[in-house]
Specification:
Blueprint: E1 5-13, E2 19-28, E3 33-37, H1 44-51, E4 59-64, E5 67-68, H2 73-78, E6 80-83, H3 95-105, H4 112-121, H5 137-149, E7 155-159, H6 167-182, E8 186-190, H7 194-200, E9 203-208, E10 211-217, H8 218-225, E11 227-234, E12 250-253, E13 258-264, H9 272-281, E14 286-293, H10 296-304
Helix pairs in contact: 3-5
């Protein structure tokens, strides 16, 4: 199946000489949820802005559902809905008017039934006649999503969609995104909330300093890069580790009451049996143990921390 978005050797250099993007190659699969992660200034918003026709690329090509975003701008842009970070709406307009107007901007004929469905799906129908200025921040965020969906796009970009919203609304949005994917909409999101990507994404891309340093299925990424920790709750605290255990990746925690062993889940031997034997030899006893899998946040930090 052809990718719904195909990016080839995409670059962006601003007039100041700053290179925001450096040779990005990326294919987005039709119907997937793709999360783009990266620190502030990494190039996430620049990449989205180029695909959506807001920023002009310095080089490379982007196809949106087969349409070149430069040569066939109108057809490409009609395929895309964008929910920006900023709350940019006409404060004095009503909800239903601003969403209806947004549909008209793409040359779509009036479709009251579609607008009603979008507003109901986003729990905005009861607010349809309210002015934007009277809504809460979370409701304004929903209006932005409704505007992006008004012209029935097949690709939806969510740039930090849940920034500044409460936990309950964030969960509602996650459910809405999943429901959209079930209808065939391809969703690309950027987020600072690592758990958001871990919860929702099918694949994850990591961008740093304008370079795409990794693209991987979420489960495979966790499998490849995830470490496990064995946490031993000791009977008696230690002030230092015995020299005989120096071969193990060990450290003390909780004022010496806990012993933490980090091991590679992909290794043929985890070393746990040898470690436990060594502890017994040293007379170190523990009352309980537990294991912890590295989170996506741990993996993300390890990927970007040593890059220039």
């Amino acid at each position: 199946m052809q990718p719904i978005i195909s990016i080839s050797n995409l670059s962006k250099t601003y007039a100041t000489g700053f290179k925001a993007l450096k040779g990005i190659d990326l294919d987005i699969r039709r119907g997937e949820i793709f999360a783009l992660l990266g620190p502030n200034g990494a190039g996430k918003t620049t990449l989205i802005s180029i695909i959506c026709g807001i920023v002009t690329p310095s080089g490379g090509t982007v196809l949106a559902d087969g349409h070149d975003i430069v040569r066939d701008y109108r057809a490409a842009r009609a395929k895309i809905g964008l929910v920006p970070q900023e709350l940019t709406t006409d404060a004095f307009e009503t909800v239903i008017a601003t969403v209806t107007f947004s549909r008209g901007l793409f040359g779509k004929p009036r479709n009251a039934a579609h607008i009603e469905k979008v507003l109901k799906d986003l729990s905005l129908w009861d607010k349809r006649d309210s002015r934007i200025m009277t809504l809460s921040g979370g409701m304004k965020r929903r209006v932005l999503i409704a505007k992006a969906l008004s012209h029935e796009p097949s690709i939806l970009f969510l740039d930090e969609p849940t920034a500044g919203v409460d936990v309950e609304l964030r969960r509602d949005m996650w459910n809405m995104v999943r429901a959209l994917r079930e209808t065939g909409v391809t969703i690309i999101l950027t987020t600072h909330y690592i758990e958001e990507a871990e919860e929702m994404a099918d694949r994850i891309g990591v961008i740093s300093n304008g370079e795409l340093i990794l693209v991987e299925n979420k489960a495979e990424l966790m499998r490849k890069l995830g470490k496990k920790e064995l946490l031993l709750h000791l009977d008696h605290p230690l002030t230092q580790l015995p020299a005989s255990l120096a071969e193990f990746d060990l450290h003390l925690a909780n004022d010496g009451h806990d012993l933490v062993y980090v091991y590679d889940t992909q290794s043929e031997r985890t070393g746990i049996t040898t470690l436990l034997h060594g502890l017994a030899t040293e007379g170190i006893r523990f009352r309980d143990l537990e294991t912890k899998q590295s989170s996506l946040e741990d993996i993300f930090v390890s990927l970007v921390k040593d890059r220039p």
